[in-house]
Known about the structure:
By secondary structure, the protein is an alpha/beta fold. Helices cover 34% and strands 14% of the residues.
Amino acid sequence: EMQDFLVSKRMRSETKCIRAVDILFGEQTLSLCDTPGFDDTEGVEVNIANGISTSKAIRQARSVIPVLVIDEATLKVDRGNGLRSLCQIVQSLMNNWKDHIHSFVYLFTHAQSKNSAKRVSKSCSSLRSVCESDLHPILDDIISKTQPIESSATNPAGRTGAFFVDPEKDPEDRGDLFELILSAFESRITDPQSVF
């Protein structure tokens, strides 16, 4: 089922509609969802439809762990406009988004190395000095979550909510990624009906 979640380096979204796969987690069944991208090359109408369908689907869930997927390279291109755009989309989808930022998980794709955290933190710090102040909370959260923490039995990689993968180079990262996303289960949004 997970093989249906496509990863591509092409400049267009591979996901045209929301895809979900159910996974057993302890005594619970969780749904891992892949949603269409925003700022797609398909046009404004597709963006609007994606926003409406994604918001409706999220409101049907009992709880949500938002995973923001960011191509690491976009942080340095065009003064970070890709990340700025993503932040604005998050703001438009969520009510009181700043109150729920602790629930966000950041997935940086096409990471050039496992040491990408320092580059991302530095790029976000630079962006913070030139971007709108309403984007500072997300940038601060990314900076915070890219700081290394001490490894433990429950967090052997020493990660805190920002993950770096290149699934085309490291296909085994997909399994690790799922476990790392689930590590954010305790900080999930438990009332998506009022948040989205």
